[in-house]
Automatic annotation (TrEMBL):
Belongs to the aldo/keto reductase family. CDD domains: AKR_AKR1-5-like. Residues 73-311 form the NADP-dependent oxidoreductase domain. PANTHER family: 2,5-DIKETO-D-GLUCONIC ACID REDUCTASE, NADP-DEPENDENT OXIDOREDUCTASE DOMAIN-CONTAINING PROTEIN. The keyword Oxidoreductase applies. Keywords: NADP, Oxidoreductase. SUPFAM superfamilies: NAD(P)-linked oxidoreductase. GO terms for molecular function: oxidoreductase activity, acting on the CH-OH group of donors, NAD or NADP as acceptor. This is Tat (Twin-arginine translocation) pathway signal sequence. It comes from the Bacteria. It comes from Helicobacter didelphidarum.
């Protein structure tokens, strides 16, 4: 039996000083191959999951089907999602692409319960009525009667006043209602800053199950990640490559990629996974989608994890 590990020990191991236990890559007979709940990670393949605080299994790697990443060509986008499903992606993160995802799921023939759908609605929604209307419209476009994860977005901490905070609390209560109605299997937050934890969490009847954050080698906060874990929230990154393409051409990354005979993108994704982040990667290019999925047959050693982690805060200003 493998030894247990504290959250604090995990942060040290994942970021600097040791290696993570990696299982051999295989696919079992069940839908997902379950990993031990965070912060322990057993990265095996596209089927690997993390257990949320309500017992739901969330795949640790997914396809980010975002309108900003896919563009406006719905036919091309549908083919991209179909390719992701064909490759074996079991987690699709949806933002303003519900119609494309719904069509792809129907065309794929894959049973709905074999795909984990994460949904975030328009960040500008401020009332319960508008939220419910938008949610119902999204379900219709997705051609489903539930989503697996529904999140609400928090703007930067320095822009949040009392009115905005109260709006977010009211929206969270709406998520709780949808959860109780079993129209969503899990609920979470996006960009919940550590400074807001003590103010927001007491307002929650149901604790958030996931905290989605901007996390990548240039920009991460181990204290925020650890605080999320300590409050029983899994952590996800929806911006694994940062802004622009600086990380892809970062000399440290390209050198490490050569060592493992991998691309820079694969190394970056692997770093995110080994840090314990549920990770989404986005592209409309079917070849790139396949490239992104091939991150389970190698492991970055402690020295390389540390070298990549040292890139924090070094991105050149535009």
């Amino acid at each position: 039996m493998q030894e247990t590990m504290t959250r604090r020990d995990f942060i040290k191991v994942a970021g600097t000083s040791s290696t993570l236990v990696i299982g051999s890559c295989f696919f079992g007979t069940s839908l997902f191959t379950t990993a031990v709940a965070a912060p322990r990670v057993d990265i095996q393949g596209l089927f690997t999951t993390q257990r949320l605080n309500n017992g739901v299994e969330m795949p640790i790697f997914g396809f980010g089907a975002y309108s900003t990443a896919l563009g406006e060509d719905k036919i091309k986008n549908t083919q991209a999602v179909l390719e992701a499903l064909k490759i074996g992606y079991k987690h699709i993160s949806v933002f303003e692409t519900e119609e494309v995802i719904g069509n792809a799921l129907m065309q794929s023939g894959i049973p709905r319960d074999e795909i984990f759908l994460s949904l975030q609605l328009d960040n500008k929604i401020t009332t319960e009525d508008d939220f419910i209307v938008a949610f119902n419209e999204s379900l219709a476009k997705l051609k489903t009667n539930y989503v697996d994860l529904l999140t609400i977005f928090f703007p930067p901490i320095d822009t949040i006043n009392n009115d905005i905070f109260n709006q977010k609390v009211n929206l969270w209560q709406t998520l709780e209602k949808l959860y109780k109605e079993k129209r969503v299997k899990a609920i979470g937050v996006t960009n919940l800053n550590r400074d807001l934890f003590e103010q927001f969490l007491p307002e929650c009847e149901i604790r958030p199950m996931v905290n989605q954050l901007v996390l990548n080698p240039y920009n991460y906060d181990d204290r925020l990640v650890e605080t999320s874990f300590n409050r029983k929230m899994q952590v996800a990154t929806f911006v694994p490559f940062g802004s622009g393409k600086d990380l892809i051409y970062e000399p440290t990354i390209t050198k490490i990629a050569q060592k493992y005979n991998k691309t820079a993108s694969q190394v970056i994704l692997r770093w995110n996974l080994q840090k314990g982040y549920i990770t989404f990667a986005s592209s409309a290019d079917v070849n790139v989608i396949k490239e992104y999925s091939e991150v389970f047959n190698f492991m970055l050693d402690a020295k390389d994890m540390k070298a990549i982690s040292k890139l924090k805060g070094t991105q050149k200003s535009k």
